[in-house]
Amino acid sequence: MSPRPRKSRRMGDPPRVQGFIPVGRTEGQESEPVNILYEEWEAFRLVDHEGLSHQEAALEMGVSRPTLTRIYNEARKKLACALVEGREIRIEGGFVGFRAEWYRCMRCHAVFSLEEGEERKCPKCGSKELLHLNESVRNWQRKRGHGRWRHLDPGHCVCPACGTRVQHEPGRPCNTYVCPSCGAPMVRE
After folding, report:
1. What burial class does residue 14 get, using C-beta atoms within 10 Å of its C-beta: 0-12 exposed, 13-18 middle, 19+ buried?
2. For the chain, does the N or the C end have fewer beta carbons within 10 angstroms?
């Protein structure tokens, strides 16, 4: 049986920045950045910046209180790691659904929402080089095989003997398939 798809967490506004770089790091001190997911950032923002209780923040994000607490604790653990170890912080991806269509200008980095029918350009600098944040999150989810995207394209099972491919059925191991061409057990592509 395949795991239950993650429920999308509601999020009002995306972060204004894409991350943070520590000051005073010397050459050769670079290490792997700490990646904060949008829902972790949102939980941290609601609880520590807005001062909401875990119950109030959970309602705002559309998740249960225990789920909010898990997300929040993960955000704090990652932030502590980044601060103590002097690591870069990147804010990207996650399992969120924005309440509006959001864009980031690739020239001036402004974050903004556009009304339906409004020209797709940055209201701050006029650039048309925009990153559609909603689509960016969906692409992040697709690349990692999460959520509903995993069920829309479950992949294929392939025969190692003759190369025949068949659509994979979620929840059924590929080795339970028999190749329709040669009768050999199939493997995951």
Report:
1. buried
2. N
